[in-house]
Amino acid sequence: MSIGTFILVSVIKIVIALVLLLTAVAYTVWLERKVVGHIQNRWGPTRVGPFGLLQPLADGAKFIFKEDLTPPHVYKPLYIAAPMLALVFALTSISVIPVGNWITVGGIQTPLQITDVNIGLLIILGVTSLGVYGVALAGWSSNSKYSLLGGLRASAQMVSYEIALGLSLIGVLIMAGSFSLRDIVDAQGGHFWGFIPRWNIFQGQIVAFFIYLMAAYAETNRIPFDLPEAETELVAGYHTEYSAMKFAMFFMAEYANMITVACLASLLFLGGWHGPLFGPPILQAILPLFWFGLKVFAFLFLYIWVRGTLPRFRYDQLMAFGWKFLLPLAIANLIITALIVALKS
Amino acid sequence: MLHLIIFSVFGLVCVAGAVNLLAQRHPINSALSLVVVMGSLAVEYLLLGAEFVAAVQVIVYAGAIMVLFVFVIMLLNAGEEERTKGSRVAMLFGIPGMLIGSALIAWVLLEHSGTASVAAGALPGPPKVIGWLLFHDFLLPFEITSILVLIAIMGAVVLAARPESAQQTKKES
Fold first, then answer.
1. Cβ within 8 Å, pair B67-A159
2. Which residues in chain A have Cβ-Cβ distances shorter than 8 Å to B74?
3. In total, how many domains does chain A have?
C-alpha cells in the first residue's frame, strides 16, 4: 500500500469511527433518559421526533446556543483546557478498538479498526489514565469548593480503581499471549464441545470479568460510584462551574468513556465479534458487526439499568471496596490463572 | 528520515517542558510541564522501538505518579512560589553551572563513550522480550527491587499510621 492510499484509508476510517462514536454517545444519552424514565415510571423524552428520537439533536443545539459563562477568579488557561483534555483522551482511545475482521474494498485490504498496534490494550490503559487530568484540573481551576472536592475524589478514585482494572485484564492477556486486541479476540474463536463459545468468560475468567465490570463503573464515574459528581452533596462535583459547550464536553467524555469500556469488555471477555454465522455471504459479512454492536449495547443497557437501581456508596466504602476487596481478588485471580496456564503448557 | 525528524521534535519538546518546569512560578504549571516531559519521553522510547516501555512510561509516570503530584498540589492549595534573595543567587550560579555540566556530559559522551548509539527502532521492544529479560536474565535484581519497594511501602504505612497508634497508647495508659 502506498503512503497516499494509506493516509486516505486512515482518514476515511477516522472520520467513520468518530461519526459513529459521537452518534453512539448522543443516542446513549437518549437511551439513558428513556430507560431510566421507564424504570422510574415516567416516559422520558417523547416530544421531539418519534419516541423523542431527535432529542439529542435538540440538546446539542441547546448546548451550542447557551451562554458560555466563565466565573470570576478561575485559573483561565486550565479552566478552558480541562474539558478539552477530558474529551480528547476519551475520543482517542477508540482508535485502537477493532470492531470486526479484515475487509477488502476495491482491492485494498484493511482491518475494521483505525490502527492495529501490538500494544493496543496498553495504549487504551495509558490514554484512560491520562483522562484523569481533565477531571482533576477542572476541579482545581474552577476555584470552587464543590469542584475541588469533586476533582480530588475523582483523581483518588480513578487512580485506585485503575490498579484493580489493570490486574483483572492480565489474566486475559496471559491466556491470549498478546497485547493486541485483534489477537485477543482471535484467540476466542471456536467452541467447546461444539456449542459453548470459547469466550474468555467461559474459560475461567468470570471472576476477572466481574472485577473489570465493577472497576469500570468506578473508572467512568457512574452510579453506584459517582462520588465525584454526587449531586446531593457536591452540586455537580468537578463540572459545577461549567456551562454550555464546556459542560457538554465533559458530558460527551463521560459517555464516550462508557462506550470504550463497553467495547473493551465485549472484546476481552465476550469474544468480540464472534457469534453464530449463517445465511448468504452478505449476511455473513454483516453479522460479526451486529454481534459486536449487540454486546456493546448490552453493556450500555446494564450501565443504565444499574444507574436506575442502585444507590450511591459512601466514599470510605468506595475506597475500602477497591483496595481491600477488589485488589486482593484480582491478584488471586491472576495467580490462579497464571498457575493453570503454566501447568497446561 | 521521518523518524529522525519526529525524534528531534519530541526531544526539543522534552527539553522545553523541562525548562518550562523551572521557569513557571505556579506549582501546578510546573507539574503539568513535567507531564509533558514524561509524555515526550514516552514518544522517544516508542521511536527507538521500545513500545512496551513507552506505554508503561505513560501509564505509570504520566498517568499515576504525576496525577498524585497534581493531587497533592490541589490538596495543599499551594500558591505561587516566592522569589527570594536565595533563589536569585541560586539562579546566578545555577544557570552557568548547569551549562558547564551539560557541556561536560555531552563532551564525555561524544568523545569517550564506549557504546555505540542506538539506531531508531533498534531497541528490544516487544513485551515478550522484556518479560524474558525481567523474569529470566535479570530475575535476582528484579526481585531485590520488588523487596525494596515493599520496604518503602511498609515504611510509608508506618509513618502514616503513627499518630493514631500514639493516641491509642495514650488512651490505654
1. yes
2. 136, 139-140, 148, 151-152, 155
3. 1
Q: How many domains does chain B have?
A: 2
Kindly list the residues of chain A whose beta carbon comes within 8 Å of any beta carbon in chain B: 75, 78, 117-119, 122-123, 125-127, 129-130, 132-133, 136-137, 139-140, 148, 151-152, 155-156, 158-159, 162, 166, 179
* DSSP per-residue string spanning B20-54: HHHH-SSHHHHHHHHHHHHHHHHHHHHHHT-HHHH
Q: Among B1, B25, B28, pick the best mutation site for testing chain A contact (most A Cβ within 10 A).
A: B28
Q: Does residue A265 fall inside a structural domain? A: yes
- Could you say which of B35, B62, B75 has the minimum Cβ distance to residue A152? B75
Task: Let me know whether B114 and B142 are in one domain.
Answer: no
What is the residue range of A222's domain?
Answer: 71-344
B58 and B108 in one domain?
yes
B61 and B118: one domain?
Answer: yes
Which CATH number is B39's domain given? 1.20.120.1200
Same domain membership, residue B99 and residue B18? yes
pLDDT mean over A19-30: 89
Please tell me the predicted confidence (pLDDT) of residue B144: 93
β strands within chain A, DSSP E: 100-105, 108-112, 191-192, 196-197
- pTM to 2 decimal places: 0.83
Spatial CA neighbour of B61 closest among B16, B14, B104, B94 = B14
For residue B111, being part of any structural domain is answered with yes
Query: Which among B85, B76, B82 has a CA at the least distance from the CA of B25?
Result: B82
Mean pLDDT of A165-191: 82
